[in-house]
Amino acid sequence: MHPAVISVVCKPDYVLSVVFDNDECGVLDMSPYLDFGVFKKLLEPGAFETAHVSFGTIAWKSGADLAPEFVYEKCLKANMKKT
Questions:
Q1: Is 11 among the domain residues?
Q2: 25 domain-assigned
Q3: DSSP category for residue 3
């Protein structure tokens, strides 16, 4: 089982700062995925910034969401404890 997302903050250039429930944190660059399916909607003004934690992963008001294992595996883990 993968750690759950407990915090997400939107950064410039479609980057997310993520904190997991195991105290790991990292950065997820979403820009490579925004040309596909429901993720295209995140390119609309203000849409990406609606990212929030939902059921241990990341979701958006547009209905797009990410599998928790995708978030954990793709995140560039900073290997530092949250503060």
A1: yes
A2: yes
A3: P
Cα separation of the two ends of the chain = 24
| Nearest of 20, 34, 70, 41 to residue 50 by alpha carbon | 41
Per-residue pLDDT tens over the stretch 24-40: 999 999 999 999 999 99
> What is the C-alpha R_g of the chain?
12
Cα–Cα distance measured from residue 10 to residue 12, given in angstroms and rounded to the nearest whole number: 7
pTM score of the predicted model:
0.89
Query: The domain spanning residue 40 has which CATH number?
Result: 3.30.2020.10
DSSP-based three-state secondary structure for 20: strand
Q: Residue 42, SS3? A: helix
Q: CB of 60 within 8 A of CB of 48?
A: yes
